[in-house]
Amino acid sequence: MFEKVTAYPGDPILSLNEDFQRDPRSGKVNLSIGIYFDDNGKLPVMEAVQQAVQQVLAGPGARPYLPMSGLADYRSAVQSLVFGSSCEAQKAGRIATLQTLGGSGALKVGSDFLKRYFPDSQVWISDPSWENHRVLFEGSGFKVNTYPYYDSNTGGLRFDEMLAAIEGLPARSIVLLHACCHNPTGVDLNHEQWQALVPVLRERNLIAFVDMAYQGFGDGLDEDAYAPRLLADAGITCLVANSFSKNFSLYGERCGGLSVVCADKDEAQRVLGQLTCTVRANYSNPPTHGASVVARVLNTPALRSLWESELGAMRERILAMRHAIHKGLQGHVHGPALERYLSQRGMFTYTGLSAEQVDRLRAQYGVYVLRSGRMCVAGLNKNNVGVVASAVAAVQS
Ligand code: KET
Fold it and tell me: Distance between CA atoms of 332 and 325, rounded to whole angstroms?
C-alpha cells in the first residue's frame, strides 16, 4: 500500500537537534535549535512558571474540553501582551484572538484561513527566513516567494530593496514579517523602517502576517512588540502569530496565539468564527494545561513581574554571551563577520559560516550550528563560549 512513500529527508532544525541528542561526545555544544539554555547549559524552568504550575495543580483538576478558540483568560492576556494594555483596537473589540498550538499552530491556522478566503494570493517571506515558514504556507496550498532582506556583506538589512519589492506586489499578497529577533539573521527593521512600511501595506492592499516568536528577547516585551502595535494603531488589517515557547521556556506545552486585527468588531467576530471553524476541522480544540499556566502568570501581578524580571535576565545573559564570543573571536575573525555578533539581536546570529565550515565544526569540535550558518547564541554559556570561539576561529580564519 505504501511502497511509493519516499523517505523523509528530515527537517534542517529539528532533525539536527535529534542528531545532537544522539552524539555521544561529552563536550558537544548545541547551538542549532532556537532554545534558550541557562548559564549551566540547562533548559530553565522559570520560577514564575513553577509557582503558576503549583497553583493550577492545586485547583479543581477537572479537564473539560476548552472552547475551540481556547481559554478566555489566556486569549485576553495574549491580546494585552501583544498589542499593549492601551490598544485602541483591543478596546474597540476589533481583534480576534485564539489560543493556538505554539507559534507554529498560529501560523498554520492563519494560513489555512487565508487560503480559504484568498485562494489566488501568494505568500512572500524574507530571504532568508525560518525554514518552516515556507513548509507551513506551502502546506496550506500557497506558492511561497521571497523578498530581499539580509545583506551578507554587511550583516545588515537591504531595506530599500525590501521596500521596493513589497511595493511591487499584487494586491492581497500575503507578506510574512518578523516582529523582532529575526530568525535566522538577528537583523530587524528599526522604527523608521516599520513606519515606512505602513503606507505601502495600506496602499498596495497587502495582508501583513507578523510572526512574533521571541517577544522579550530583543529589547524588551513592549519594545519588541512595536510592529504589531504600530500596524494595529494604523488601522492595517493584519495577522499576528505569537509564541510562549521561548519566553516562558514552555516549548513542549505548545502555547501560542493568533490575533487578527480587523476593521471593526462585527468583522472581528466573523473572523473569529471562521478561525474556530479551521480549528475544529484540524484538532477540534486546544489543550488546557500550558495555557492555564501562562494565563495564571500573565494575569497575576506578582507572578507577572517575577516572569518579566526572569525574562529580562535571560535577555541580558544572551547579550553578555554576544560580547563574550565577540571577544573570543577578536584577532581571528574580522570586519562585519565579527561585528554581527554584537549588532544582531535575539537568539540568533547569522555567522556567515559556509555549510562546509559548519560540517567541520560539528565533526571536529562537536559544535552544532545550522548548515545555513545560523548560530543560536542563547546556547552559549560561560563554560562553552571559549571552546566555541576557538572552534569557529579555527574553521573560519
Ligand atoms: N516562528 C519563528 C520565527 C520561529 O523561530 C519558531 C521556532 C516558531 C515560529 C515556532 O514556535 P513554536 O511556538 O515552537 O511553534 N523556531 C525554533 C524551533 C523550530 O524550528 O521549531 C528554531 O528556529 O530553531
Answer: 11
